[in-house]
């Protein structure tokens, strides 16, 4: 449930409390889980209604959620047990002991035994610890003191213990305001409307003569006074009920938004609130008497159409929609990912925008106030304008004082007008400049506006009433609209914090502006003086920018919270609610993530020194790139209108141009035209021969665009070429590493050996490693709890034949593993075995947590079945049968709602996770003459659609949605040994594969082309590197660092490997059209289901 829905629940709770629906109130509290009513909980506990106490508590937590929850339930059940003993009801005490307290025996067996021994005593007060137990009433009171402390400390109850501050009868107030607004929109409003139902929109029946509208009140005799209600915590916003599907997008937002409590504008004072003595307040919207400067009249045809739309179903015939777009097939090759050139600007770039029709013409704004025009096809700066105040005397005193105090200034936004004739520039102090663009080297200042008090944070162009205007916003909390003569047309007031961004748009003939402020508030404005039509909270509630797709049909926003969490979402315009949240942001950001859209299909955002791409219709990152390095932590980026070029800022005061195949052709064509033009007779200008300049540019483009000619496989053969660290106390020839994984936090590594022993290594935070995350530069600690316990699995006598398996919970709090015996659940803090289950036969061979529910586990078995097991109730829900040999791999896709299984029979099975029915079964294509032996592993790409399948004979990429293979690579050339293991990097951009001769291959994930080989001599000692039996059995990738991997060796050792600090990554991407270059093969992959003879070597 989204955040605004929570507020709706609170309004309903308040209404139910005022109407004295006591039982319903507490039922809603429990079922929603939004409000823990401590007063009600205390009443039930003091009354000894233990079943109701636990039932109410179960809406907020379960016994095993965390240590606080476990203690809460234990104290309640202990008290119930002691009360049964105190009244000599031994049968009830035994029942409580067996049914309620037994669950705690797995966590503290000694305590459970001690509680059981109380049954043998005539009076349990004979036990020393219970000697001070008084009567039942006092014992319950003492218990409640402890419970309140535990509940307040429990993170699951955070923000659920205080009711938000609401005015009495808030829900009734909102309904009255809605009815009054509906009455205001009546064509023939009656003075005393008769409201008989809330089930349909109100409309007065026609009558002769027009009458003035009057406030509407609910037809109730009186409004009950609310009784005292336990206060509850503040929560975020809710998406209200959907507007009619036929209403326009903005009308949907407006019809559903909470009306503002006050409306202010340049010409209209705050709207009045009438509060009759016998009714709740009703919002009115006074109509202005005049319209400024000939802009849209409040009562003209455009506004009338909006009024019709606000009536939703009454005017569906008035609404027209564009034809649905034709389905187009997209691929990653459509994304501009190849670095075409790097350009040095000279100062930090703060904003960029491509010309709307000249695809290589780029406007750049800088931190020193300079703006520049670049033709990125020519790599030439066409013109540059340093910041200069045109008319100092015309500036306001505040503006003049600001420059006297500090003359520095930066560009906050640069933007082309839709026709490409103007460039708008917003600055961090007061001013906006408009430049007229009349040719490649002709950029003239057209206008200077003293626009805002303080920083001008954003600028955009709009076309209200078919008149080109400039829209700005600033730190003065205002949104302003200007004509091209610098006259202010509208000034929108209503934000309570500096306005961060604006997004003008139109739906059919309705023009509007979205604005976002640094308090996370989103508002929408029509070009009138009635005030904001929308008041919503953006995810993260801090700086957010909104953008439409190129065709204007889809609305997105991207922003960052003050805590550094970033949010990229798509909005459902008809409801004003979040439709989709995109995942993939990994690090806490110190600034605001920037994003852009292209081709009505892709999103891109700059974060973590990378560019991340999303398909608009998929929640997960489809790919991410570092653009050959050199990007800042939060790079700015911008697509051109065709989407074939992407510009991104660099950390060294410049920017890079990235291109797809079409973009490369466009750049080459520009170079070619320039070269041909330069061959005509010309005169030397400024002492430079234009012909030589063009030849140099042509050579530069060839160097950049034809990087395939210079590509060569990177081979890491010396220890100085990479960083590697061996985990202490890991080497044990008798305990080969069978399974290896990083903790989800990235702070540690967990290894499971063939003898069933698990080892954990952790990195500490210190000056050398401030993040505390795993690194090859520092030796970690072999971590053990204070008790010295070791995580040891139940193993059979012939454990050498067992198949170890392991799975880690999302929060790193516990790990499940097995090694031929029972599955053990270990506490990661204490290393204690919390419980065991699934005793053989058959033995467990693979474990995978369900992505939506940590209590559901898929367990692959030795007998080829898959058990879907519920840990909480200790029950196998279903058994899946489809393989012929033991299960060797399991992976869930949350996007496709499928479970994919692989087995030693070389089969891949696809299962629906809703019904657990098998969708399809396919066999991996083995080389001729090979029988199905060895493990087949599977792992999903971050897009949750593609998946990596690994067998000793091949690497393959499958499309799980189509259940077919799209790419394959077989061992060859420098990597000809069998594959022992493979995994995606954390961003799914690379594939790491280990081989039985000690080599490690780094492949491009998209095409499975080898980009780097790490020889055993680079990470093993000289003596070890020559061993024929020492090689990695398993490889795993760091969850946040895409260029860090770890390997588990046949001698029991574990090593973390990273590129050298000077390189920072494993080689460079292999050009797609690369074959045999410089005498070295690019180790091509085989695509699209090759014939069997292609796999023979």
TrEMBL record:
One of its GO terms (cellular component) is nucleus. Keywords: Nucleus, Phosphoprotein, Repeat, Transcription, Transcription regulation, WD repeat. Residues 1075-1088 have a biased composition (Polar residues). One of its GO terms (biological process) is regulation of DNA-templated transcription. The keyword Lipoprotein does not apply. It is found in: Nucleus. SUPFAM superfamilies: Quinoprotein alcohol dehydrogenase-like (SSF50998), WD40 repeat-like (SSF50978). Residues 1073-1097 are annotated as: Disordered. Coiled coil: none annotated. InterPro entries: CTLH_C, LisH, Quinoprotein_ADH-like_sf, Topless_fam, Topless_Znf, TPL_SMU1_LisH-like, TPR1-like_2nd, WD40/YVTN_repeat-like_dom_sf. This is CTLH domain-containing protein. The lineage of its organism: Eukaryota, Viridiplantae, Streptophyta, Embryophyta, Tracheophyta.
